[in-house]
Amino acid sequence: MSEALRDRAAIVGIGTSRFGRNLPESQLALAASALKAALADAGLQRDDIDGLSIHIGWPLGVDYDQVAQAFGLEIDFVNQAWTHGRFVTGSLQTAAMAVTCGMAKVVACVNVLSFTRERDILGGPHDFEGYRETGGTHAETPHYGLTAPAGGAALAMQRYMALYGVTSAGLAAVPVALRAHARLNPAAVMQRPMSVADHQASRMVVDPLRLFDCCIVSDGAAVVLVTTAEHARDLRQRPVLIAGMQGMAAGRDEFIFAPPGLGINQQSGTREARPAPRDLAVYRSAGIPRDAIQGLYTYDAFSPLVLFVLERFGFCAAGEAAGFVQDGRIGPGGALPVNTSGGLLSEAHVAGWNSLCEMVRQLRGDAGPRQIEGAGALQWATAWGDSVILRN
Asked: Cβ(55)–Cβ(88) under 8 Å?
């Protein structure tokens, strides 16, 4: 991201539907609930929206034209990516660039998922994306028998454990901390307390990932409204500024569920102790150093991804993240809270947009009992290298 774009776009409205399992509402109904909430939050009307950045493509959602038609929107700018945590940042970044360059005045970033409605498609005979010739979106390779998203993350974690002596009990600190956050969030699906013993007693899914290392399957929607910082000053809420961004990495040494050096498709087979320079670009673009980040948010489809993002962005060196997350450091009141609403592991799987909404609440000071004291700069970052820094 060019420094010329720093602080020029802002998030001015957020809204979510209810979260849960087997919800009776259609995807359009869930999205409508979230959009109405976002408009009310921003003090905007439906006619103010002239852009869509959609993160709900087939088979897990409706297309942009259906959204525009159903909600009575008149749209001049559209971006659409299919549903996956990889495209959270890209959808938000595209919205920010669209308003900054004048292609739209207000862009609604819309995400809706009905995982429980679509579970018969995912991984089944009609999952064409998951069974494309070279493997699916999570590096599934059916011709080798690896057909579950958890498989790639599990293999990366197996290698991590072998390299650094980490145990499953050590990994348990991640889902335990996120469950503690979720218990302070009445919107979270998972409210039951979790201990390390509970984690260790849960069934194995793909070794070494146990049940509580895997995200919940749920339904829900989230909407984020983006406009220019200048326009934002005239609206209801104090704007949350998009301070810095860096894009998603790709190449022969990149893998969807691991940092360079741990992925199953990577060719170099080596790990660096410290992040590559491109993984620090977000701090330069934002003008905010890493040690000023007060909370970290990430796509936690599987608990190892939290360790991997901590290392990719230099919060700790290679092999140190499992020790870093112990003793409540990433939990409520910790030195670096992670996914304070509970994330995908305990709040809901809305592809990470629920965590973007939580970042806005935190920066407004509206997070209630889970509020990070004095929150001024928060970071979204993933194991595959994309990132956004938000500030108030």
From this structure: yes
